[in-house]
User: Fold this.
Amino acid sequence: MTSAVTATPPLPRHWRRPNFITNPLARWALYAAVTLYLVLGIGSLEVNWARAIQGLERGWAFVLGFLQPNFTSRWGDIVIGFQESLTMTVTSTALGVALSIPVAVGAARNLAPTWVYLICRSFVALSRTLNEIIVAIFLVAMFGFGPFAGFLTLTFATIGFIAKLMAEDIEEIEASQLEALRATGAGYLQVLDFAVLSQVMPRLIGLSLYRLDINFRESAVIGIVGAGGIGATLNTAMDRYEFDSAAAIILVIITIVMVAEYSSGWLRKRIQ
Amino acid sequence: MLELRQLEKRYPGGDHALKGVSLSVGAGEVLGLIGPSGAGKSTLIRCVNRLVQPSGGQIELDGQDLSALGSSGLRNARRQIGMIFQEYALIERLTVMENLLSGRLGYTGFWASWFRQFKGNDIAQAYLLLERVGLSGMENKRADTLSGGQRQRVGIARALMQSPKLLLVDEPTASLDPKTSRQIMRLILELCQERGLAAIVNIHDVVLATEFLPRIVGLRAGSVVYDGPAANINKTILTDIYGDEDWTAITQSMQASARGAPEDSKPENSVLTLATSP
Assistant:
């Protein structure tokens, strides 16, 4: 046994994983270039330390304001802001999800003809390229200040978000189930119902709950550019230097987001 | 009953999968389609119900040319053709009952199927078939909780729910263990006999094919190279279909199963045993 092993020519006892860039010159040149860029980049930073220290003082005043949140003096505004935000969130999520389903089917390569696919994908790309704040500024300019612009913004963003993720999920469903249902002579919508919807339903529910979460957070952000809701209330408080009221608003936002986060997570776990 | 004439299939990639296949299947006739991987067996049966669009030739089912049908005509024609799949192709997240009833979708309106309001006759038929394939009481189980053999039984029942004239069976046993494979083959053959169904069965396992299926069609590189009784399959024919190989073990076990090997002396096999023994 041992003699047989020693008799064969010695096998290599070292092995190294091949480098991603095989040419050593190119590899070291890349390292050198990255290092040089870092050195130059850090060297170009100009820090005004005097201004930074001044900023720390202001920041501290801000923190002090936040340590004494004032729920009472603007409570009425806060309640109205939240009502607006919640309405915006729920309605835009419901409408957005409903509209995103046909777009998702159209944006799935395995279900839609090429021209429909291209149209739906372009719409999804457009919706996802434009940040909510930019859309909100645009829609506020079109429809005026207030929650209606916010509702439209969030609906538009929801369609892009859900349609993209659902289209990817639809493209990954088991093709054999589609084939089997087509073979029974089922119509197009029946195939969608039995073979597609049944496979993507858990993800659709999960994503919708997740989007509800996101929409609430976004409703607070887009309010700052005039799209109504709690964001507008927060913006007003900040403009008036009422840091204590602003702190109260932020605390309420955090609480609601956490409640939404936990309850949607719990629901999603139950559905799987 | 089913008549294929000069069926051609060329895939967009240039792969010439079927090169003028002509085949005739009589009413109630069950034939086995064997051949190496890539010979075009799957393409051939998928061309029959046009899950794969043939590039040329005719498919005639009871005098109707399926290759010329538009989308609604095709859906009507597909209702008469049941299909059974290798990986069962069940709707995994739905119940066994929904899977069975999905065989009736061609006869059910969209809203009725959306609300799962199927006709009373269809539901009664589903219970009957569940009992026939040995799955009584399983109607409310989700399909993904069943074992392989049970899933294939659901697949068979779904195909039969269509009340088809013709069954297309694609590798029904390839994902199953040997014992379950034999049970499933036996079940398919019995049901075809009971209902006078014609069937085309794609199958890899030559021994299983020759044991259960009276007529064998051998496909090689998109052409039919053998069409005749299973009893005539020998080393030369296997070499024609699959190429050179030592076929001794296969032909021996074919003869053994034709004589009726002791572990297979079940009543269902007696017909075959009588027919082939001297």
Q: What stands out?
A: Chain B touches chain A at residues 49, 51, 75-79, 81-83, 85, 87, 89-94, 98, 102-106, 108, 110, 113-114, 155, 158, 162, 168 (CB under 8 Å). Chain B has eleven helices and ten strands. The longest helix of chain B spans residues 178-195.
